Amino acid sequence: DLGYQYDISGGYVKPYLHLAALNEFADGNSVRVNNVSLDNSVKGAAFQAGLGAEVKVTDNLGGYAAFDYTKGDNTERPWQATVGVNYTW
């Protein structure tokens, strides 16, 4: 991950960029249902990219948002979004 923290009054904003190379070595992941063999192996290489931000508003309240995309030899995960709020007491 590559990012930077910007301090604001009482908290911060931390945007980041995420890049990753992935590789799955396992092969032959299959299951047999009603005499039909289904193979969902994702063996091979993949690349993942994403961007996001973490925000802290007060000592107790913060949030985050992330957007990721993965594409590989045998797999693709289109854009995925994750959003959340953190509260501690």
At a glance:
This is Autotransporter outer membrane beta-barrel domain-containing protein. InterPro entries: Autotransporte_beta (IPR005546), Autotransporte_beta_dom_sf (IPR036709), OM_autotransptr_brl_dom (IPR006315), Pertactin_virulence_factor (IPR003991). The chain is built from no helices and eight strands.
Task: Give an overview of the whole structure.
The structure is a single chain. With 89 residues, the protein is mostly beta strands. The chain has one domain (2-24, 44-87). It has strands spanning 2-3, 6-8, 11-24, 30-33, 36-39, 44-56, 61-72, 76-87. The strands form 2 sheets. Strands 1, 2, 3, 6, 7 and 8 form a 6-stranded antiparallel β-sheet that branches. The protein has a two-stranded antiparallel sheet with strand order 4-5. A hairpin with a 3-residue loop joins strand 7 and strand 8 (76-87). The mean pLDDT is 91.
**From the helix content, strand content and strand pairing, which structural class follows?**
mainly beta
What characteristic shape results from the CA principal axes? Answer: elongated
Helix content: under 10%
What is the string of SSEs from the N terminus onward? EEEEEEEE
